[in-house]
Design a protein that fits this description.
The strands form 2 sheets. The chain has a 5-stranded mixed beta sheet, sandwiched between helices. A 5-stranded mixed beta sheet has the order 8-7-6-9-10, with helices on both faces. α3 packs across α7 and α4 crosses α5. With 263 residues, the chain is an alpha/beta fold. It folds into 2 domains: 86 residues, 2-Layer Sandwich (Nucleotidyltransferase, domain 5), CATH 3.30.420.40; 141 residues, ATPase, nucleotide binding domain (Nucleotidyltransferase, domain 5). The chain contains 7 helices and 10 strands. The protein starts with a strand and ends in a 7-residue tail after the last helix.
Length: 263
């Protein structure tokens, strides 16, 4: 079995694959204060609860956008599973051509999303990943990564609004029934959720105009579910909560001669 980990600023997504099948997925909070031993206890307890045999893990791969925590998680994986994870970074074989000014600056989270879409859905494509930050990226008609636009994430924006104003409170993210809020909580949620919908719709239209052709639309990320049900855009959107996990599997197999890349 293969262990895959996608470590973001808010959460660590963990998946276990049996060949191409994702048999388990977990989410744990990203915590810079936790030690390797604490992560060891957390992850091992998850495996016990899921009745997964730790000894069956034969390989691991990690994508991290939290450098101070990367070494901690690597130590945890080595101690718990007795394997050294492949870390996605410059020099890793991905099969993705990155056509931007400084390819080595591209975050591993964007790389694994793009690889997953290219291999599993095809191209051209616009990929929307909603997390701590919103990331809207594109693969052109050749399957090359050609750029990304960052915007403030939904939760990040709401927290910033509350901390920067005297009379606006922290609220739980919940989709209001109407755009025009009748109370403070609904008004904040309306701007955060419907405002993000409008932003994404506009950016997708503008990106397709810049590319000169229509694309597929793939949506993922921790906050994607808030928008997916009623996100009205000119063309269909595919929602894939496991996009990054499959991207990690594909990259691991490309680097280890797995079943996805056998000649």
């Amino acid at each position: 079995m293969l262990l895959v980990l996608d470590m973001g600023n808010t959460e660590i997504k963990i998946g276990v694959f049996q060949n191409k099948q994702l048999i388990e997925r977990f989410h744990i909070a990203t915590d810079l204060k936790k030690s390797s031993d604490e992560y060891y206890a957390t992850i091992s307890s998850i495996f016990v609860a899921a009745k997964l045999d730790i000894a069956l893990i034969e390989g691991a791969i990690l994508a991290s956008v939290v450098p101070p925590l990367t070494g901690v998680i690597v130590k945890t994986i080595e101690s718990l599973f007795n394997v050294t994870p492949l870390i996605v970074g410059p020099g890793t074989k991905t099969g993705l051509k990155i056509n931007i000014d400084h390819p080595n600056e591209l975050g591993s989270d964007l790389v694994i999303d793009a690889v997953s879409v290219k291999e599993r859905y095809g191209y051209p494509a616009i990929i929307i990943d909603l997390g701590t930050a919103n990331k809207i990226m594109a693969l052109d008609k050749n399957g090359d990564f050609v750029g990304v636009s960052f915007t403030v994430g939904i939760r990040t924006g709401v927290e910033s609004l509350s901390s920067s104003t005297a009379q606006l409170p922290q609220v739980s993210l919940k989709k209001p029934s109407k755009i025009l809020g009748k109370n403070t909580a609904d008004s904040i949620n309306s701007g955060a959720i419907y405002g993000t919908k409008a932003l994404l719709r506009g950016l997708m239209i503008m990106i397709e105009e810049e590319l000169g052709y229509e694309t597929k639309h793939i949506l993922t990320g921790g906050y994607a579910k808030l928008l997916f049900d009623n996100l009205k855009v000119p063309l269909d959107i595919i929602y894939d909560q496991d996009l990054s996990l499959h991207g990690l599997r594909l990259i691991y197999n490309r680097n280890h001669g797995g079943e996805d890349h056998k000649k």
